[in-house]
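Holo prediction. Input below; ligand is MCU.
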Amino acid sequence: GSDPSPSPTNPPQQSSTLTTSRVTVAPPTNTSPAPGGGGTTCPATPSGQGNPVANALNDPFTFHGGGKVSSKADWTCRQAEISKLLQQYELGTLPPKPSSVTASFSGSTLSISVSEGGKSISFSVNINNRPSGSGPHPAIINFGTFGGLPVPAGVATINFNNDEIAQQQDQSSRGKGKFYDIYGSGHSAGALTAWAWGVSRIIDALELTRAQTNIDPARIGVTGCSRNGKGAMVAGALEPRIALTLPEESGAGGSGCWRIATWQKNRGENVQESKQIVTENVWFSTNFNSQVNNVNALPFDHHMLAGLIAPRALYVMENTDMEWLGKVSTYGCMGIARKQWEALGALDSFGYSQVGGNSHCSFPSSQQGSELNAFIGKYLLNNPNAGNTNIFRSTGNQNFDLNSWSPWTVPKLS
Ligand code: MCU
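Structure of the complex:
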Protein backbone atom coordinates (compact mmCIF):
# COMPACT_ATOMS: atom_id res chain seq x y z
CA GLY A 1 0.00 0.00 0.00
CA SER A 2 1.38 3.21 -1.22
CA ASP A 3 -0.77 6.24 -0.68
CA PRO A 4 -2.76 6.74 -3.88
CA SER A 5 -2.85 10.46 -3.56
CA PRO A 6 -4.92 12.32 -6.08
CA SER A 7 -3.27 14.36 -8.76
CA PRO A 8 -4.59 17.87 -8.25
CA THR A 9 -4.33 19.47 -11.60
CA ASN A 10 -4.97 23.11 -12.14
CA PRO A 11 -6.32 23.62 -15.63
CA PRO A 12 -6.54 27.16 -16.99
CA GLN A 13 -9.61 29.01 -15.84
CA GLN A 14 -12.32 28.98 -18.44
CA SER A 15 -15.09 31.50 -18.42
CA SER A 16 -18.52 29.98 -18.49
CA THR A 17 -21.70 31.60 -19.64
CA LEU A 18 -24.55 31.12 -17.23
CA THR A 19 -27.96 30.60 -18.71
CA THR A 20 -30.36 33.06 -17.18
CA SER A 21 -33.27 32.65 -19.54
CA ARG A 22 -36.15 30.48 -18.42
CA VAL A 23 -36.38 27.22 -20.26
CA THR A 24 -39.88 25.88 -20.60
CA VAL A 25 -40.61 22.22 -20.37
CA ALA A 26 -43.40 20.49 -22.21
CA PRO A 27 -46.43 19.74 -20.02
CA PRO A 28 -46.78 16.13 -18.89
CA THR A 29 -48.85 14.24 -21.39
CA ASN A 30 -49.05 10.84 -19.79
CA THR A 31 -48.29 9.11 -16.55
CA SER A 32 -46.57 5.89 -15.62
CA PRO A 33 -47.16 3.31 -12.91
CA ALA A 34 -45.11 3.78 -9.76
CA PRO A 35 -42.09 1.51 -9.34
CA GLY A 36 -43.00 -1.22 -6.89
CA GLY A 37 -46.64 -1.11 -7.92
CA GLY A 38 -49.29 -0.43 -5.34
CA GLY A 39 -51.50 1.24 -7.91
CA THR A 40 -49.87 4.67 -7.55
CA THR A 41 -49.46 6.67 -10.69
CA CYS A 42 -46.37 8.78 -11.25
CA PRO A 43 -46.49 12.03 -13.18
CA ALA A 44 -44.80 11.92 -16.58
CA THR A 45 -41.41 13.57 -16.83
CA PRO A 46 -41.48 16.43 -19.32
CA SER A 47 -38.60 16.53 -21.77
CA GLY A 48 -35.98 19.25 -21.48
CA GLN A 49 -33.84 20.33 -18.57
CA GLY A 50 -36.29 22.76 -16.97
CA ASN A 51 -35.35 26.04 -15.33
CA PRO A 52 -31.70 26.54 -14.40
CA VAL A 53 -30.85 26.64 -10.70
CA ALA A 54 -27.97 28.92 -9.66
CA ASN A 55 -26.26 29.34 -6.25
CA ALA A 56 -28.62 26.72 -4.84
CA LEU A 57 -29.29 23.02 -5.23
CA ASN A 58 -32.37 21.71 -7.03
CA ASP A 59 -35.52 21.01 -5.04
CA PRO A 60 -35.78 17.22 -4.63
CA PHE A 61 -39.41 17.58 -3.54
CA THR A 62 -40.76 19.14 -6.73
CA PHE A 63 -41.29 16.93 -9.76
CA HIS A 64 -39.66 17.93 -13.04
CA GLY A 65 -43.11 18.92 -14.29
CA GLY A 66 -43.74 21.19 -11.29
CA GLY A 67 -45.98 19.06 -9.04
CA LYS A 68 -45.12 18.69 -5.35
CA VAL A 69 -43.90 15.53 -3.67
CA SER A 70 -46.31 15.13 -0.78
CA SER A 71 -46.29 11.43 0.18
CA LYS A 72 -43.90 8.49 0.38
CA ALA A 73 -45.53 7.11 -2.77
CA ASP A 74 -44.73 10.40 -4.54
CA TRP A 75 -41.16 10.12 -3.29
CA THR A 76 -40.80 6.71 -4.96
CA CYS A 77 -42.04 8.26 -8.19
CA ARG A 78 -39.66 11.20 -7.82
CA GLN A 79 -36.73 8.83 -7.23
CA ALA A 80 -37.50 6.99 -10.46
CA GLU A 81 -37.62 10.35 -12.26
CA ILE A 82 -34.33 11.52 -10.71
CA SER A 83 -32.64 8.24 -11.63
CA LYS A 84 -33.80 8.63 -15.21
CA LEU A 85 -32.54 12.23 -15.40
CA LEU A 86 -29.18 11.32 -13.85
CA GLN A 87 -28.74 8.53 -16.36
CA GLN A 88 -29.78 10.76 -19.25
CA TYR A 89 -27.49 13.72 -18.54
CA GLU A 90 -24.61 12.30 -16.52
CA LEU A 91 -24.28 8.58 -15.81
CA GLY A 92 -25.53 6.87 -18.98
CA THR A 93 -28.18 4.18 -19.15
CA LEU A 94 -28.29 1.35 -16.63
CA PRO A 95 -29.48 -1.72 -18.58
CA PRO A 96 -32.24 -3.87 -17.08
CA LYS A 97 -31.42 -7.24 -15.54
CA PRO A 98 -29.87 -9.41 -18.28
CA SER A 99 -31.86 -12.34 -19.65
CA SER A 100 -29.56 -14.91 -18.06
CA VAL A 101 -27.52 -14.78 -14.86
CA THR A 102 -26.12 -18.02 -13.43
CA ALA A 103 -23.77 -18.57 -10.51
CA SER A 104 -21.82 -21.21 -8.63
CA PHE A 105 -19.89 -21.16 -5.36
CA SER A 106 -16.78 -23.20 -4.63
CA GLY A 107 -14.15 -22.65 -1.92
CA SER A 108 -14.46 -18.91 -1.44
CA THR A 109 -15.10 -18.12 -5.10
CA LEU A 110 -18.45 -16.99 -6.40
CA SER A 111 -18.46 -17.40 -10.19
CA ILE A 112 -20.98 -15.37 -12.17
CA SER A 113 -22.00 -15.81 -15.82
CA VAL A 114 -24.15 -13.31 -17.64
CA SER A 115 -25.71 -13.49 -21.11
CA GLU A 116 -27.69 -10.95 -23.04
CA GLY A 117 -28.48 -10.59 -26.72
CA GLY A 118 -26.21 -13.45 -27.76
CA LYS A 119 -23.17 -12.14 -25.84
CA SER A 120 -21.79 -13.65 -22.65
CA ILE A 121 -19.27 -12.72 -19.99
CA SER A 122 -18.21 -14.25 -16.72
CA PHE A 123 -16.40 -12.89 -13.71
CA SER A 124 -15.81 -14.02 -10.16
CA VAL A 125 -15.50 -12.51 -6.71
CA ASN A 126 -14.02 -13.91 -3.52
CA ILE A 127 -16.13 -14.03 -0.39
CA ASN A 128 -13.73 -13.72 2.55
CA ASN A 129 -14.18 -13.95 6.32
CA ARG A 130 -17.46 -15.81 6.01
CA PRO A 131 -18.69 -16.06 9.58
CA SER A 132 -19.31 -19.51 10.97
CA GLY A 133 -22.55 -20.19 12.78
CA SER A 134 -26.05 -20.68 11.55
CA GLY A 135 -26.47 -17.48 9.54
CA PRO A 136 -27.38 -16.29 7.06
CA HIS A 137 -24.73 -13.59 7.41
CA PRO A 138 -24.38 -10.10 5.97
CA ALA A 139 -21.57 -9.05 3.63
CA ILE A 140 -19.86 -5.90 2.39
CA ILE A 141 -18.87 -5.60 -1.27
CA ASN A 142 -15.57 -3.73 -1.50
CA PHE A 143 -14.61 -2.02 -4.76
CA GLY A 144 -11.07 -2.43 -5.99
CA THR A 145 -7.95 -1.61 -4.09
CA PHE A 146 -8.02 1.90 -2.63
CA GLY A 147 -8.56 2.22 1.09
CA GLY A 148 -10.75 -0.34 2.75
CA LEU A 149 -12.77 -0.26 5.94
CA PRO A 150 -12.18 -2.25 9.14
CA VAL A 151 -15.09 -4.68 8.90
CA PRO A 152 -16.27 -6.09 12.24
CA ALA A 153 -16.68 -9.80 12.97
CA GLY A 154 -19.90 -11.33 11.75
CA VAL A 155 -19.73 -9.64 8.33
CA ALA A 156 -18.18 -11.26 5.26
CA THR A 157 -16.28 -9.20 2.68
CA ILE A 158 -16.66 -9.59 -1.06
CA ASN A 159 -13.83 -8.27 -3.22
CA PHE A 160 -15.14 -6.72 -6.41
CA ASN A 161 -12.57 -6.06 -9.13
CA ASN A 162 -14.57 -3.21 -10.66
CA ASP A 163 -11.87 -2.33 -13.20
CA GLU A 164 -12.55 -5.68 -14.88
CA ILE A 165 -16.16 -4.63 -15.53
CA ALA A 166 -15.23 -1.12 -16.75
CA GLN A 167 -11.64 0.12 -17.03
CA GLN A 168 -10.61 3.46 -15.48
CA GLN A 169 -7.02 4.15 -16.49
CA ASP A 170 -7.69 7.41 -18.27
CA GLN A 171 -9.60 8.63 -21.32
CA SER A 172 -8.39 5.65 -23.34
CA SER A 173 -10.48 3.36 -21.09
CA ARG A 174 -13.77 4.47 -22.66
CA GLY A 175 -15.92 1.50 -23.58
CA LYS A 176 -13.46 -1.11 -22.29
CA GLY A 177 -14.26 -3.91 -19.87
CA LYS A 178 -16.68 -6.80 -19.56
CA PHE A 179 -19.76 -4.57 -19.36
CA TYR A 180 -18.92 -3.27 -22.83
CA ASP A 181 -18.13 -6.78 -24.10
CA ILE A 182 -21.84 -7.45 -23.59
CA TYR A 183 -23.44 -4.09 -24.39
CA GLY A 184 -20.97 -2.77 -26.98
CA SER A 185 -18.12 -0.27 -26.67
CA GLY A 186 -20.44 2.56 -27.71
CA HIS A 187 -22.90 2.01 -24.84
CA SER A 188 -23.78 5.26 -23.05
CA ALA A 189 -22.97 4.01 -19.53
CA GLY A 190 -19.89 5.50 -17.92
CA ALA A 191 -17.72 3.36 -15.67
CA LEU A 192 -19.68 4.24 -12.49
CA THR A 193 -22.91 2.92 -14.04
CA ALA A 194 -21.19 -0.17 -15.45
CA TRP A 195 -19.82 -0.98 -11.99
CA ALA A 196 -23.29 -0.57 -10.44
CA TRP A 197 -24.50 -3.09 -13.02
CA GLY A 198 -21.70 -5.43 -11.87
CA VAL A 199 -22.72 -5.04 -8.22
CA SER A 200 -26.28 -5.94 -9.20
CA ARG A 201 -25.03 -9.13 -10.85
CA ILE A 202 -23.13 -10.05 -7.66
CA ILE A 203 -26.38 -9.66 -5.72
CA ASP A 204 -28.24 -11.73 -8.34
CA ALA A 205 -25.58 -14.42 -7.84
CA LEU A 206 -25.91 -14.24 -4.04
CA GLU A 207 -29.66 -14.73 -4.40
CA LEU A 208 -29.02 -17.82 -6.54
CA THR A 209 -26.40 -19.36 -4.23
CA ARG A 210 -27.88 -18.51 -0.85
CA ALA A 211 -27.87 -22.11 0.32
CA GLN A 212 -24.16 -22.50 -0.51
CA THR A 213 -22.76 -19.14 0.60
CA ASN A 214 -24.95 -18.61 3.68
CA ILE A 215 -24.87 -14.89 2.79
CA ASP A 216 -28.11 -12.92 3.16
CA PRO A 217 -28.68 -10.94 -0.06
CA ALA A 218 -30.97 -8.57 1.85
CA ARG A 219 -28.10 -7.45 4.11
CA ILE A 220 -25.45 -6.25 1.69
CA GLY A 221 -23.24 -3.19 2.15
CA VAL A 222 -21.09 -1.57 -0.50
CA THR A 223 -17.91 0.43 -0.09
CA GLY A 224 -14.94 1.85 -1.95
CA CYS A 225 -12.59 4.80 -1.61
CA SER A 226 -11.95 7.82 -3.80
CA ARG A 227 -12.83 6.98 -7.44
CA ASN A 228 -14.17 3.69 -6.10
CA GLY A 229 -16.10 5.64 -3.46
CA LYS A 230 -17.88 7.37 -6.34
CA GLY A 231 -18.62 3.85 -7.55
CA ALA A 232 -19.98 2.77 -4.16
CA MET A 233 -22.25 5.83 -4.04
CA VAL A 234 -23.63 5.24 -7.54
CA ALA A 235 -24.14 1.52 -6.84
CA GLY A 236 -26.12 2.35 -3.69
CA ALA A 237 -28.16 4.85 -5.68
CA LEU A 238 -28.95 2.58 -8.63
CA GLU A 239 -29.37 -0.77 -6.82
CA PRO A 240 -32.18 -0.76 -4.23
CA ARG A 241 -31.17 -4.18 -2.86
CA ILE A 242 -28.15 -2.56 -1.16
CA ALA A 243 -28.94 -2.11 2.52
CA LEU A 244 -25.96 0.06 3.52
CA THR A 245 -23.90 2.39 1.31
CA LEU A 246 -20.46 3.35 2.64
CA PRO A 247 -18.59 5.69 0.28
CA GLU A 248 -15.16 6.71 1.57
CA GLU A 249 -13.62 10.01 0.36
CA SER A 250 -15.58 9.90 -2.88
CA GLY A 251 -15.31 13.65 -3.43
CA ALA A 252 -16.25 15.17 -6.78
CA GLY A 253 -18.60 12.93 -8.71
CA GLY A 254 -19.54 11.11 -5.52
CA SER A 255 -20.69 12.98 -2.43
CA GLY A 256 -19.70 16.40 -3.83
CA CYS A 257 -22.14 18.62 -5.71
CA TRP A 258 -21.28 20.00 -9.14
CA ARG A 259 -22.72 23.45 -8.48
CA ILE A 260 -20.86 23.91 -5.19
CA ALA A 261 -17.55 22.86 -6.76
CA THR A 262 -17.95 25.27 -9.68
CA TRP A 263 -18.97 28.08 -7.33
CA GLN A 264 -15.78 27.44 -5.35
CA LYS A 265 -13.67 27.13 -8.47
CA ASN A 266 -14.97 30.50 -9.65
CA ARG A 267 -13.69 31.93 -6.36
CA GLY A 268 -10.26 30.54 -7.10
CA GLU A 269 -10.34 27.42 -4.94
CA ASN A 270 -8.61 24.32 -6.26
CA VAL A 271 -11.50 21.89 -6.11
CA GLN A 272 -12.19 19.24 -8.73
CA GLU A 273 -15.15 20.32 -10.84
CA SER A 274 -17.14 18.79 -13.66
CA LYS A 275 -15.21 20.51 -16.48
CA GLN A 276 -12.01 18.92 -15.24
CA ILE A 277 -13.32 15.52 -14.19
CA VAL A 278 -14.57 14.60 -17.65
CA THR A 279 -11.05 15.13 -19.00
CA GLU A 280 -9.46 12.90 -16.36
CA ASN A 281 -11.29 9.62 -16.76
CA VAL A 282 -14.34 7.76 -18.05
CA TRP A 283 -16.38 7.65 -14.87
CA PHE A 284 -19.33 9.43 -16.50
CA SER A 285 -21.24 8.98 -19.73
CA THR A 286 -20.11 10.99 -22.74
CA ASN A 287 -23.62 12.49 -22.35
CA PHE A 288 -22.15 14.54 -19.51
CA ASN A 289 -19.59 16.29 -21.74
CA SER A 290 -22.18 18.69 -23.12
CA GLN A 291 -23.36 19.58 -19.59
CA VAL A 292 -20.17 20.45 -17.78
CA ASN A 293 -19.88 24.05 -18.96
CA ASN A 294 -23.30 24.90 -17.60
CA VAL A 295 -23.90 22.91 -14.43
CA ASN A 296 -26.72 25.26 -13.39
CA ALA A 297 -28.83 23.72 -16.15
CA LEU A 298 -28.66 20.22 -14.67
CA PRO A 299 -32.09 19.12 -13.38
CA PHE A 300 -30.34 17.55 -10.36
CA ASP A 301 -27.16 17.65 -8.36
CA HIS A 302 -25.45 15.00 -6.28
CA HIS A 303 -27.56 15.60 -3.18
CA MET A 304 -30.22 13.93 -5.33
CA LEU A 305 -27.90 11.09 -6.37
CA ALA A 306 -27.61 10.42 -2.63
CA GLY A 307 -31.38 10.85 -2.29
CA LEU A 308 -31.94 7.80 -4.48
CA ILE A 309 -30.71 5.86 -1.46
CA ALA A 310 -33.18 7.45 1.02
CA PRO A 311 -34.52 6.03 3.31
CA ARG A 312 -31.98 3.20 3.01
CA ALA A 313 -28.83 3.66 5.10
CA LEU A 314 -25.95 5.86 3.90
CA TYR A 315 -22.81 6.68 5.87
CA VAL A 316 -20.50 9.07 4.02
CA MET A 317 -16.88 9.38 5.17
CA GLU A 318 -14.87 12.40 4.02
CA ASN A 319 -11.59 14.17 4.72
CA THR A 320 -11.14 17.85 5.53
CA ASP A 321 -7.56 18.08 4.35
CA MET A 322 -7.70 18.63 0.62
CA GLU A 323 -9.89 21.08 -1.19
CA TRP A 324 -9.44 19.03 -4.39
CA LEU A 325 -11.32 16.15 -2.77
CA GLY A 326 -14.33 18.30 -1.93
CA LYS A 327 -13.83 19.66 1.58
CA VAL A 328 -16.64 22.18 1.14
CA SER A 329 -18.50 20.66 -1.81
CA THR A 330 -19.13 17.34 -0.03
CA TYR A 331 -20.05 19.04 3.25
CA GLY A 332 -22.59 21.29 1.55
CA CYS A 333 -23.91 18.61 -0.76
CA MET A 334 -24.45 16.03 1.96
CA GLY A 335 -25.71 18.59 4.46
CA ILE A 336 -28.50 19.26 1.99
CA ALA A 337 -28.88 15.59 0.94
CA ARG A 338 -29.69 14.85 4.57
CA LYS A 339 -32.99 16.75 4.21
CA GLN A 340 -34.34 13.87 2.12
CA TRP A 341 -33.94 11.47 5.07
CA GLU A 342 -35.46 14.15 7.27
CA ALA A 343 -38.54 14.31 5.02
CA LEU A 344 -38.91 10.54 5.30
CA GLY A 345 -38.52 10.52 9.09
CA ALA A 346 -35.34 8.47 8.61
CA LEU A 347 -32.49 10.61 9.96
CA ASP A 348 -31.19 7.54 11.79
CA SER A 349 -30.12 6.10 8.46
CA PHE A 350 -28.05 9.09 7.30
CA GLY A 351 -24.49 9.83 8.36
CA TYR A 352 -21.90 12.33 7.12
CA SER A 353 -18.59 12.41 8.93
CA GLN A 354 -15.66 14.54 7.82
CA VAL A 355 -12.39 14.08 9.65
CA GLY A 356 -8.98 15.58 8.95
CA GLY A 357 -5.43 14.65 9.81
CA ASN A 358 -5.28 11.40 7.88
CA SER A 359 -3.94 10.70 4.41
CA HIS A 360 -6.31 10.08 1.52
CA CYS A 361 -8.07 6.70 1.87
CA SER A 362 -6.56 5.82 5.23
CA PHE A 363 -9.51 5.25 7.53
CA PRO A 364 -9.33 7.36 10.72
CA SER A 365 -10.00 5.39 13.90
CA SER A 366 -12.25 8.18 15.23
CA GLN A 367 -14.85 7.11 12.69
CA GLN A 368 -14.78 3.46 13.66
CA GLY A 369 -16.26 2.63 17.05
CA SER A 370 -19.16 5.02 17.39
CA GLU A 371 -19.91 5.58 13.70
CA LEU A 372 -18.97 2.86 11.21
CA ASN A 373 -19.63 0.07 13.70
CA ALA A 374 -22.96 1.64 14.65
CA PHE A 375 -24.05 1.70 10.99
CA ILE A 376 -22.85 -1.85 10.31
CA GLY A 377 -24.34 -3.05 13.60
CA LYS A 378 -27.75 -1.54 12.98
CA TYR A 379 -28.15 -2.08 9.24
CA LEU A 380 -26.20 -5.29 8.57
CA LEU A 381 -26.01 -7.13 11.89
CA ASN A 382 -29.62 -6.41 12.90
CA ASN A 383 -28.63 -4.90 16.23
CA PRO A 384 -30.98 -1.99 16.96
CA ASN A 385 -28.82 -0.96 19.93
CA ALA A 386 -25.59 -0.59 17.96
CA GLY A 387 -25.39 3.13 18.69
CA ASN A 388 -26.30 6.54 17.30
CA THR A 389 -26.45 6.67 13.52
CA ASN A 390 -27.93 10.16 13.12
CA ILE A 391 -24.59 11.79 12.32
CA PHE A 392 -23.60 15.05 10.67
CA ARG A 393 -20.21 16.34 11.64
CA SER A 394 -17.01 17.90 10.35
CA THR A 395 -13.75 18.55 12.16
CA GLY A 396 -13.03 21.27 9.61
CA ASN A 397 -14.05 24.86 9.99
CA GLN A 398 -16.83 24.95 7.43
CA ASN A 399 -18.22 28.23 6.28
CA PHE A 400 -21.03 27.16 4.01
CA ASP A 401 -24.63 28.32 4.21
CA LEU A 402 -26.70 25.14 3.93
CA ASN A 403 -29.96 27.07 4.15
CA SER A 404 -29.35 29.60 1.39
CA TRP A 405 -28.30 26.70 -0.86
CA SER A 406 -31.59 24.87 -0.22
CA PRO A 407 -34.29 27.55 -0.53
CA TRP A 408 -37.15 25.05 -0.63
CA THR A 409 -39.44 23.46 1.91
CA VAL A 410 -38.80 20.02 3.37
CA PRO A 411 -42.16 18.21 3.53
CA LYS A 412 -43.08 15.54 6.06
CA LEU A 413 -43.81 12.50 3.95
CA SER A 414 -46.01 9.65 5.08
C1 MCU B 1 -11.42 11.40 -5.15
O1 MCU B 1 -11.21 10.53 -6.24
C2 MCU B 1 -10.24 10.75 -7.23
C3 MCU B 1 -10.27 12.15 -7.78
O2 MCU B 1 -11.56 12.41 -8.32
C4 MCU B 1 -9.23 12.29 -8.87
O3 MCU B 1 -9.15 13.61 -9.35
C5 MCU B 1 -7.86 11.89 -8.40
O4 MCU B 1 -7.01 11.84 -9.50
O5 MCU B 1 -7.92 10.59 -7.87
C6 MCU B 1 -8.80 10.39 -6.79
C7 MCU B 1 -8.63 8.93 -6.48
O6 MCU B 1 -9.34 8.09 -6.98
O7 MCU B 1 -7.55 8.59 -5.74
C8 MCU B 1 -7.29 7.24 -5.51
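Residues 1-24 have pLDDT under 50 and may be disordered. That is the main takeaway for now.
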